[in-house]
């Protein structure tokens, strides 16, 4: 960047201003910039003032700020923020302020103009596709596919920032969602490291979206596992989202954003050790490749190995993600994204009977450490590779085009043994074997054109798009038997059988959708609406039966959304929205033999959002009525069977808040009430029952306090509490799963470029049942885990 010429006259920590910039610096703003790192304080100042802040990153490295609060002019706020930093500031124009070192910032020429060193532009506005400035997000794209303020989006969205992922030492997407409203984050208790199972507003979530593209597949074990260390943020969009994304669960979706190359150099090493015994090492490097900054890179990787609470079961995970960004000019960005992952896990999901887990048996409870398989037949290996890109070009002030594309290939091999209940009159578990191999080819592409223009007093953000996804998988399975295992005296090395392949299928899933959306601003009013039409086709070929019969299903569906919001000047924003969804159901109805129908959903939602100016906080209250028809239920088998139960209604409300308060205090708080009901079913006895795995109440609270001055500066403590109310493990409501209350905690210390942290989850080692699928398929939740982290950045 060419050196900037700024006419200045230093006055203490500030600058005496001349010219048009003076008016910009005198208008008072209600600032609330917390004390902490100078980088974060300047980012908060930029957000709250609406000014663009520019500086060289090296001059703020390691510096702290006392913050600033109250009704202040921008130059008064900056003087407080920069107090004792040795830095000066100057307003280069009415919208930009430059920070510089008093002496090293440049030289003064004969005219009195100061030639500053090259500086990095750090905009006060957060990008929806980039990192969150601290804990509290202000922008999101998951609800609109455009960069839109959260407070102006008429639908519930919660954002888990990179800072929260770090503070809570998150290791998978399920853990990232533990403190998100409306989400049963770890439906199976968090013990299954292979896949992320979660519920949103009472409905099972589809596989997470990554960088705007679906990762949905026929089989969850073929879905690419998303590594949190490679993410900038994780978002939850609650309620139907088919008007933008096509086939989806009515409960909502999870959208993750990958780390991307940065303009400034970034280097990080991280080491972790944990209990159950485990170690990991990670690195994250980024910065410019070319001198002119047009080519950037990022390389992120992690290797992790750990034991688990189950005997004979451990996990190994490897991940590396090279990325490059090319910016030939300020209007064009092309980012290449790739990921290579491999996991080698034992059969971590130990299914056990309700007797001895949910209910005490004559011998007591089955130990959570019991391994029900065989050490010589206990391996689940999965490899995934993906390549893709994110492209954006801005033609002018009106038109911008974007395209996201990803191709991935995944293969998996499974060797595990499960159980099917007690042999009557004994303490021995009847056991079965499962051997499987499968692979997946997946392609997804989304092309968008955005136009921003005015029609009289109306400001429009118009979006047109077409997306396409294709998934082709093959699954080969062998189902056998194994000798019984005594839960009181388990003896391994017993005989088991793995017969020839008895189930094999070739599955295709294709979906094409065209969509249009308009976001209209009129004074304080925000109106948005969108329509989408989808063509979805599934094809399932039986590779074992004679003649290889094929079942095909073609679905066409129009979905839409409408939202209305009023943004008061004080930051309060009441809203109303209506949205619909559909989701194809691959496979056959096990009762009728016909192809499963797509499920459809519709939701009415009213709520209030509050993101006050000058305060780094965001609060929401939402109430909803959500209906789904043609609901598909799965019997895990083996063999797996499917049925469609009719209709389900969810009615509830959510209260959520996140705040980065003064004096180093951070807060995340949520409460969810969800009253689920089966409203239609072929079995009259199920009508009126609560659907499986839907607790009426959930709540969470996380507090983190960092000392910002004195001898203990940089030392911090965090504590969290999570409550999940009682629920049922079946639609018949015969298996009641007790509620549970878990406590998490952390202690951390930041010193210069180093960070030391110790995190504990389920600190009091609560033993609980995560869920049940029937009286022979119950799963324990994750017990206490402790993780120590050392990281260094420079």
Textual characterization of the structure:
- The structure is a single chain.
- A hairpin with a 4-residue loop joins strand 11 (106-108) and strand 12.
- The chain has 794 residues and is mainly beta.
- The chain has a 22-stranded antiparallel beta barrel.
- Helix 2 (38-49) packs antiparallel against helix 3 (74-81).
- Residues 1-25 and 103-123 have low confidence and may be disordered.
In short:
With 794 residues, the chain is mainly beta. It has 6 helices and 48 strands.
Note the gap between the termini: 22 Å
Low-confidence stretches: 1-25, 103-123
Percent of residues in beta strands:
over 45%
User: How many separate helices?
Assistant: 6
Mean pLDDT: 88
Helix content: under 10%
Structural class: mainly beta
What would the principal axes of the Cα set say about the shape?
Answer: globular
Using only C-alpha atoms, the radius of gyration works out to 27 Å
Question: How many beta-strand segments?
Answer: 48
Main sheet makeup: 22 strands, antiparallel, barrel
């Amino acid at each position: 960047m060419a050196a900037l010429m700024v006419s200045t006259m230093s006055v203490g920590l500030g600058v005496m201003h001349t010219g048009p910039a003076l008016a910009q610096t005198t208008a008072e703003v209600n600032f609330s910039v917390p004390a902490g790192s100078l980088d974060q304080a300047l980012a908060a100042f930029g957000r709250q003032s609406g000014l663009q802040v520019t500086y060289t990153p090296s001059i703020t490295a390691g510096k702290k700020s006392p913050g600033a609060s109250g009704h202040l002019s921008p130059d008064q706020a900056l003087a407080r923020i920069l107090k004792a930093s040795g830095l000066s500031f100057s307003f280069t124009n009415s919208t930009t302020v430059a920070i510089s070192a008093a002496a090293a910032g440049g030289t003064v020429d004969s005219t009195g103009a100061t030639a500053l060193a090259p500086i990095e532009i750090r905009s006060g506005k957060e990008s929806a596709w980039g990192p969150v400035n601290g804990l509290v997000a202000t922008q999101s794209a998951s609800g609109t596919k455009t960069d839109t303020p959260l407070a102006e989006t008429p639908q519930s969205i919660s954002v888990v920032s990179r800072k929260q992922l770090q503070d809570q030492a998150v290791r998978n997407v399920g853990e990232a969602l533990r403190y998100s409203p409306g989400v049963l984050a770890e439906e199976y208790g968090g013990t299954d490291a292979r896949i992320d199972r979660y519920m949103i507003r009472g409905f099972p979530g589809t596989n997470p979206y990554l960088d705007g593209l679906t990762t949905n597949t026929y089989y969850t074990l073929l879905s690419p596992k998303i590594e949190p260390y490679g993410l900038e943020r994780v978002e939850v969009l609650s309620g139907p989202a088919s008007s933008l994304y096509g086939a989806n669960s009515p409960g909502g979706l999870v959208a993750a954003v990958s780390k991307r190359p940065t303009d400034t150099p970034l280097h990080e090493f991280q080491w972790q050790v944990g209990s159950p015994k485990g170690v990991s090492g990670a690195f994250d490097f980024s910065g410019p490749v070319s001198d002119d900054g047009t080519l950037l890179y990022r390389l992120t990787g992690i290797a992790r190995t750990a034991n688990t609470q189950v005997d004979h079961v451990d996990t190994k995970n490897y991940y590396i993600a090279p990325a490059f960004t090319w910016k030939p000019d300020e209007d064009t960005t092309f980012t290449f994204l790739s990921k290579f992952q491999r996991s080698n896990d034992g059969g971590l999901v130990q299914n056990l009977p309700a007797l001895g887990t949910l209910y005490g048996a004559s011998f007591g409870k089955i130990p959570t450490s019991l391994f029900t398989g065989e050490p010589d037949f206990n391996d689940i290996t999965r490899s995934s590779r993906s390549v893709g890109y994110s492209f954006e070009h801005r033609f002018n002030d009106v038109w911008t085009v974007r395209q996201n594309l990803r191709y991935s290939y995944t293969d998996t091999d499974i060797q595990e043994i499960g159980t099917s209940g007690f042999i009557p009159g004994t303490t021995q578990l009847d056991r079965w074997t499962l051997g499987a191999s499968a692979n997946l080819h997946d392609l997804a592409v989304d092309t968008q054109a955005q136009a921003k223009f005015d029609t009289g007093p109306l400001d429009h953000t118009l979006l047109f798009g077409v997306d396409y996804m294709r998934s082709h998988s093959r699954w080969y399975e062998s189902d056998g038997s194994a000798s019984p295992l005594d839960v009181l005296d388990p003896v391994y090395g017993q005989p088991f059988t793995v017969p020839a392949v008895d189930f094999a299928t070739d599955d295709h899933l294709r979906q094409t959708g065209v969509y249009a959306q308009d976001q209209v601003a009129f004074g304080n009013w925000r109106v948005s609406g969108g329509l989408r039409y989808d063509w979805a086709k599934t094809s399932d070929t039986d590779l074992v039966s004679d003649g290889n019969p094929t079942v095909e299903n073609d679905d066409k569906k129009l979905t839409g959304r409408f939202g209305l919001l009023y943004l008061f000047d004080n930051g309060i924003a009441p809203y109303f929205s209506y949205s619909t969804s559909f989701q194809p159901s691959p496979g056959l109805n096990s009762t009728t033999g016909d192809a499963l129908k797509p499920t459809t959903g519709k939701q009415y939602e009213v709520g209030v959002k509050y993101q006050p100016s000058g305060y780094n906080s965001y609060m929401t209250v939402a109430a909803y009525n959500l209906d789904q028809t043609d609901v598909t239920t799965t019997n895990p088998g083996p063999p797996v069977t499917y049925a469609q139960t009719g209709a389900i209604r969810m009615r509830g409300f959510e209260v959520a808040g996140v705040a980065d308060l003064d004096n180093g205090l951070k807060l995340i708080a949520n409460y969810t009430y969800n009253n689920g009901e089966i409203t239609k079913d072929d079995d009259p006895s199920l009508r009126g029952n609560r659907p499986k795995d839907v607790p009426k109440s959930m709540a969470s609270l996380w507090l983190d306090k960092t000392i910002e001055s004195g001898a203990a500066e940089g030392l911090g403590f965090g504590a969290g509490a999570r409550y999940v109310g009682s629920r049922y493990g079946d639609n018949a409501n015969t298996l009641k799963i007790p509620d549970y209350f878990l406590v998490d905690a952390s202690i951390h210390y930041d010193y210069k470029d180093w960070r030391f942290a110790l995190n504990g989850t389920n600190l009091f080692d609560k033993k609980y049942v995560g869920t049940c699928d029937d009286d022979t398929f119950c799963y324990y939740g994750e017990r206490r885990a402790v993780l120590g982290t050392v990281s260094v950045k420079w």
